[in-house]
Amino acid sequence: RECFCSFTTTGDILTQELLCIFGTGDLGRSLGQRLLQTGYRVVYGSRRPHSCGPLPERAQVMSHAAAAQSANLVFICIHRENYDFLETLAPELKGKVLVDVSNNVEKNLYPEANAEYLQRLIPGAHVVKAFNTLSAWALQNGPSDANRQVYLCGNNAEAKQAVSVVATKLGFTVLDRGSVSAAKELEDFPLQLFPEWRLPLRLAVGLTAFFFFYLLIRDIISVYIKEKKDISFRIMVSLANKVFPIVSLIMLSLCYLPGVIAAFLQLYRGTKYKRFPDWLDRWMLCRKQLGLLALGFAFLHVLYTLIIPIRYYVRFRLSAITVSENRTPEFDTTMAWRTDSYYSVGILGFGLYLLLGITSLPSVSNALSWREFSFIQSKLGHVTLFFCTFHTYLYGWDKFLRASSYKWYTPPGYMLCLVLPSVVLVLKLLLLLPCVDRSLTRIRQGWERTNPDDDSRKSLLT
Amino acid sequence: RECFCSFTTTGDILTQELLCIFGTGDLGRSLGQRLLQTGYRVVYGSRRPHSCGPLPERAQVMSHAAAAQSANLVFICIHRENYDFLETLAPELKGKVLVDVSNNVEKNLYPEANAEYLQRLIPGAHVVKAFNTLSAWALQNGPSDANRQVYLCGNNAEAKQAVSVVATKLGFTVLDRGSVSAAKELEDFPLQLFPEWRLPLRLAVGLTAFFFFYLLIRDIISVYIKEKKDISFRIMVSLANKVFPIVSLIMLSLCYLPGVIAAFLQLYRGTKYKRFPDWLDRWMLCRKQLGLLALGFAFLHVLYTLIIPIRYYVRFRLSAITVSENRTPEFDTTMAWRTDSYYSVGILGFGLYLLLGITSLPSVSNALSWREFSFIQSKLGHVTLFFCTFHTYLYGWDKFLRASSYKWYTPPGYMLCLVLPSVVLVLKLLLLLPCVDRSLTRIRQGWERTNPDDDSRKSLLT
Amino acid sequence: RECFCSFTTTGDILTQELLCIFGTGDLGRSLGQRLLQTGYRVVYGSRRPHSCGPLPERAQVMSHAAAAQSANLVFICIHRENYDFLETLAPELKGKVLVDVSNNVEKNLYPEANAEYLQRLIPGAHVVKAFNTLSAWALQNGPSDANRQVYLCGNNAEAKQAVSVVATKLGFTVLDRGSVSAAKELEDFPLQLFPEWRLPLRLAVGLTAFFFFYLLIRDIISVYIKEKKDISFRIMVSLANKVFPIVSLIMLSLCYLPGVIAAFLQLYRGTKYKRFPDWLDRWMLCRKQLGLLALGFAFLHVLYTLIIPIRYYVRFRLSAITVSENRTPEFDTTMAWRTDSYYSVGILGFGLYLLLGITSLPSVSNALSWREFSFIQSKLGHVTLFFCTFHTYLYGWDKFLRASSYKWYTPPGYMLCLVLPSVVLVLKLLLLLPCVDRSLTRIRQGWERTNPDDDSRKSLLT
Q: What domains are there in chain A, each with its CATH number?
């Protein structure tokens, strides 16, 4: 998966190579212990070599200058705040590989990345940012699940190779991220907690809360007020099973809406070289997350639907009806067609939904050509949206025109949630009209509609 | 995940490196814009440097010759049809790295790959095929889901490294595919749309259509003709839930049949060095797809089964029966054993089915040793087939011998679909007989049955 | 995904390069055939060049010495037992790249790896271990599912590059595993069959067997003895649907117990630098497998629950009850609340369970930062455990205090299985107390509690 060409002078990796670690804190100790276990010799550089606390036994401790001179590779396990003293060691560190493993407590604390700062302090050294994305546990105990890959970056190729060799010996796989200018990104990586999921998650929570209270008032509290009947037990399953599919369908249509908006924007502008507005850009970048959350809600909807017949309430009502009626009712073929179609369309929609989810897995989407990927995510995606919308229309059936559906002048939840997917599907249909499709294709192939005094040339500059 | 060793003369990556782009069309513009954003300087080579349409602002435009001389790396963003004029630039392009990003409109349009043609035109340059598998969108906006990997190939290692460095800076990961002879494959890649899924998909559609009409006539139209009763509403769920499991079981057995055939062929021929006939080869290569489609149908079968109790028709019939009978019927223990076993075996079979599907995910199968992979796909696979077949036999139970099952002398669908899996399982059992197994193992370890005047030696030449 | 820099002298890959193969057995023949198909020329080294059995047609056969001298790269397709004669070829093999493709029949047959032994025999050659993890089928026919990656290791970087180039041309991707000391691991790889799954699988089988017999005696045999009633048909679904959730919940809590134990151990010892006892280490390393098996059992539980209403037994009982009662019973709101909450909590727990399973997929966990990974696996994991435990408590409801639940003085299965998860959750709650949490955080950041005459310094040495 990666390249570990060792560019040592002899061409052969020396066993028992000597590595230097600056800093005797937790990180330095963990790393040193692991390096010793792997077969390296380790020398620590310390301000007070004789009183620096417990260190792994077979490690030597020296002054910074002496330690630096004894090894070609120096791990900097010091907080960035204390980097400045390294400047005085510039002569000893000249030509050495400095491995910056530092992380900050929060993002954007400093204008430049720690590794860039280090490189600026000691221009004669070859700074390589590495290992900072690993947990201290992984550094001490070797790779585990989310700690297999060492990302590194740096300006000098041979320095990066040298660090690669060490990382490989420690059992990690290496992923080169380019020059030291990528350090900022690497230093932000361990601090992030699903940044691209935040907006979709907030949206999901907001929609869920809204529809929960809307339906709570409309379906349960209203019954209590009108009929003084407590049906609050319905919150747990019936209400949840109304909220989940509603949120799922809205999220799914929100996943396809930005693509449609972008297409109309390109048609309106007559060029594809103008940047989209920021909100649209951000929206398009979280489509995958929107879709996956929608899938999660759909999955809950499926399970909530399937447990219906084993619910106490349903069993009770069924036997109550049977007992009270006690006669064979009329079989309604239309009803049978409608409900069976409703279930069938729903199942097929969910199957396609799952297919979209599976092709979103990194290893699957990496194996697809982009033509295949866009076929599935765009074509099959819109078909999925159509199935799910149709499923909801079948659920409504003839209730759309019945006044009794609009209790207190509010529409039921499933009618509200049909607005957005219907709009998306209609707009998408418009885009599929031959004349519109042809214009859009031309624009996406680079053609530009030119006005006499346009400024599309400048639009390229972004 | 990849190697970005930059072999520039200094060993250090220069910021603001100058790159050249030939061609000012859409691709050239997109690529140039992105390179400028990433921090490169860009010079365009154009036939008409002063009237070549809108280009990114900070880019220079020169004649082809001048542009080529100013940079070491030249992106060829020209259609293959126009490559011939490049021959005149051979002196200026000598020793340069030429990045061929071109794609063709369809496969096999030309006898040789575009990159090979380019290399032949300018033998003194180092041609690298790269970036052609990315969408124009990804080239302009950076990596996204199915656009993370840049495949490249070329004869010169240093040239490939130089292109790797650029690709990494643009945010992509690089996958080296070897020498320029791999260019054909890379150029075909973006044109493909699930080539290995076509045969299995066609098969699935064919089988589904056949069994749909077979059961439509046998179960629904026949009732209409005989009893003048319209039960067409059953198409949506009941009929679908007969067709899906039938197709699933047949597809699953088709997935294991070629392996059994291949084993018998090797036993018959007494050698493993003879190539299999083409049809068998092609069949074996789409086993994974056959299995995954079978899993999809099985998944639909599960959902269609689970919604049975919430169907209007089923609820109606249940209450109708209760009302009409109005007495406690006898409890049939055999019936309870049989149906519960039927469900239980089905569930376990589906669980194993899913396990097979999960281990087919690229990232999971890559993490397995081939002994583990073949254990799951072959041993567990045949156990899955056994469970699913047994599940179907339990469904039939004693109906196989009842004449009433064979309406109009046609067997029910599930009997038809049992033929193939039963054959596969019997053949597999034969192969597991110790004496047969021993012969086969010997053959697979390289042993050959030799006849006095055989031609097995020649069989090696393929 | 990997690096194939070819360090041939010219910088250009020569077509029709000559490669040498020692050994004319099955492996040598398969490999040679494939190399010839890929465009290499092949020469075999053999003891009896004129009577060595069938070989691919275009291949030459020579004596070992002559063959070795004609090529730079020599594949050693000989059993380790016969390596010793290679020592006599040391002069001819000096400076050559020797590719060791050998595997052993079982682990730990020899004190040193085959490749290390080979390197010791011929110190002047550059031994590279490679291709041994592929099946013979893949070597002959090219990459397929679990046979895409060639792992290699060796002391010489250029030798590894040369082998990488060949592997890439054969269609494989290359993963460098470091120096020749990694050969042992590579040679053990093809022999392994889910080593990390054994302990969890045995545990799962043991727990399943125990609870199966426990519940068989308690729920079915006891009824037979007391009431002479045969309800053995319940084994297939009812009993299974008791055993599966019980085992699932126990396995899930076993997945989180070691983490809690480790935390208390660190608190007790006042340092994180002391190694955990071996049993705890081994336990922690199989947490992922424990969790995935637990998910499998939970999945079966879900399916077994969902088919309940279509079971013959359940339908029979329902209609029997309806018929026998024949009056509208009282609706019990508490019962409705309780059962609906029970289902709802179970569904949400299963949803989270699935989420944990999905993030365990290699490609997904690789894409997460370890902060994200530990958030999901630890925080969400404990929430999942809480949901599932709560689900089981809701199932028990008020039966915990009823004497009638304890037939024959034995508690029902679900009560037994609640012990472990309850303990884990209580311990975890203790760890979340601010004062405990603070101490633990300090310890995990490297702080050590020091006693006047402690030996924690030595504890570092492991």
A: 18-191 (3.40.50.720), 195-451 (no CATH)
Q: Which of C310, C372, C375, C456 to mutate to test the interface with A (most CBs of A within 10 A)?
A: C372
Rounded-to-integer distance, Cα B335 and Cα A307, Å: 24
Q: What is the CA radius of gyration of chain B?
A: 31
CB neighbours of residue C392 within 10 Å: 22
* Range of lowest pLDDT (A312-321, B68-77, C346-355, C450-459): C450-459
Nearest CA among C333, C294, C271 for reference residue C417: C294
**Tokens representing B411?**
């067997």
Q: Alpha-carbon distance B15 to B282, whole Å?
A: 50
Look at residue C410 and give its three-state secondary structure: coil
Q: Going by C-beta distance under 8 Å and a sequence separation of 6 or more, which residues neighbour residue B173?
A: A175, B1, B2, B148, B149, B150, B167, C1
Flag whether residue C165 sits within 8 Å of chain B, measured between CB atoms. Answer: yes
Query: For residues B166 and B75, what is the distance between their CA atoms, to the nearest angstrom?
Result: 11
Which one of B240, B311, B315 has the shortest CB-CB distance to A318? B315
**Structural tokens at position B286:** 């789409």
Retrieve residue C50's tokens.
Answer: 């004129």
pLDDT tens for chain B, residues 1 to 462: 333 333 333 334 444 789 999 988 888 888 898 898 888 899 999 888 877 777 888 888 999 999 988 999 999 998 888 898 898 999 989 999 999 998 888 888 888 899 999 999 999 999 999 998 887 777 777 777 667 788 888 888 889 888 988 888 887 888 877 788 888 888 888 888 888 899 999 999 999 999 999 999 988 898 898 888 888 888 989 999 999 999 999 999 999 999 999 999 999 998 877 778 999 988 988 999 999 999 999 999 999 999 998 888 888 887 777 666 656 667 888 888 999 999 999 999 999 999 999 999 988 888 888 888 889 988 999 999 999 999 999 998 888 778 777 777 788 888 999 999 999 999 999 999 999 999 998 888 777 777 544 444 444 433
Interface predicted TM-score (ipTM) of this complex, two decimals = 0.85
Which ranges of A170-286 would DSSP assign to H, the alpha helix?
183-188, 195-215, 222-227, 240-269, 278-285
pLDDT at C282 > cutoff 60: yes
C227, C266 Cβ separation under 8 angstroms: no
Alpha helices in C16-85 (DSSP H): 26-38, 64-70
Q: Cα–Cα distance between B292 and B286 in angstroms, integer?
A: 10
- A336, B146: Cβ pair inside 8 Å? no
Among residues B145, B187, B179, B140, the alpha carbon closest in space to that of B159 is found at B179
B179 with C13: Cβ contact below 8 A: yes
DSSP characters for B228-292?
Answer: ----GGGGTTTTHHHHHHHHHHHHHHHHHHHHHHHHHHHHHHT-S-SPPPHHHHHHHHTHHHHHH
B15–chain A Cβ distance below 8 A for any pair: yes
Interface list for B 403-422 with A (CB within 8 A): none
* Dist. CA B70–CA B416, nearest whole Å: 72
Chain B, 219-278: which have a CB under 8 Å from a chain C CB? Answer: 273
Nearest to C237 by CA among B385, B336, B305, B384: B336
Token pair 């179907």: residue: B392
CB contact under 8 A, C173 and A134: no
Cβ proximity of A169 and A61 under 8 Å: no
Chain-chain contact of A343 with B230 (C-beta, under 8 angstroms) = no
- On whether the CB atoms of residues A173 and A108 are closer than 8 A, the answer is no
The lowest-confidence range among A315-324, C381-390, C453-462 is: C453-462
Closest residue in chain B to residue A337, using alpha carbons only: B233
Q: Report which secondary-structure segment, H or E, holds A154.
A: strand A149-154
